[in-house]
Amino acid sequence: MASGPSQDVSMATPPPVPSEEPKLGGFTRFEIELEFVQSLASPLYLNHLASLKFLENPAFIEYLAYLQYWAQPPYTKYLTYPGPTLKNLELLQQEKFRADILSPDVTTRLMEEGAKAAAEWPAS
């Protein structure tokens, strides 16, 4: 994560795996981040974020980089759909993908790839 005077120290490290951490609006930081990162599995949601220009916002891009901690073993077990969630989180690290996901064709292709993977799983 880039350093700078506006950096939020509370986001410098991932939240602890479910614990007695303080609640924000009735939810822990862990629960809020889990719900958000899982929403990234949806190509339609990614397209929506792009249409609202979130994927052009440097602070939001930093937040997406921070969320990569979900790829680590203590956290992956909490993901309902780890394959598409982590794949899309990784794709969002690329500037070209953040621009391309605005295209309905790219969004449709990702949806079709996801449907195909789901239909073929588990293979063999």
Automatic annotation (TrEMBL):
<dbReference type="InterPro" id="IPR008831">
    <property type="entry name" value="Mediator_Med31"/>
</dbReference>
<keyword id="KW-0804">Transcription</keyword>
<comment type="subunit">
    <text>Component of the Mediator complex.</text>
</comment>
<protein>
    <recommendedName>
        <fullName>Mediator of RNA polymerase II transcription subunit 31</fullName>
    </recommendedName>
</protein>
<keyword id="KW-0010">Activator</keyword>
<dbReference type="GO" id="GO:0016592">
    <property type="term" value="C:mediator complex"/>
</dbReference>
<comment type="function">
    <text>Component of the Mediator complex, a coactivator involved in the regulated transcription of nearly all RNA polymerase II-dependent genes. Mediator functions as a bridge to convey information from gene-specific regulatory proteins to the basal RNA polymerase II transcription machinery. Mediator is recruited to promoters by direct interactions with regulatory proteins and serves as a scaffold for the assembly of a functional preinitiation complex with RNA polymerase II and the general transcription factors.</text>
</comment>
<feature type="compositionally biased region" description="Polar residues">
    <location>
        <begin position="1"/>
        <end position="10"/>
    </location>
</feature>
<comment type="similarity">
    <text>Belongs to the Mediator complex subunit 31 family.</text>
</comment>
<dbReference type="GO" id="GO:0003712">
    <property type="term" value="F:transcription coregulator activity"/>
</dbReference>
<keyword id="KW-0805">Transcription regulation</keyword>
<dbReference type="InterPro" id="IPR038089">
    <property type="entry name" value="Med31_sf"/>
</dbReference>
<dbReference type="Pfam" id="PF05669">
    <property type="entry name" value="Med31"/>
</dbReference>
<keyword id="KW-0539">Nucleus</keyword>
<feature type="region of interest" description="Disordered">
    <location>
        <begin position="1"/>
        <end position="24"/>
    </location>
</feature>
<dbReference type="GO" id="GO:0006355">
    <property type="term" value="P:regulation of DNA-templated transcription"/>
</dbReference>
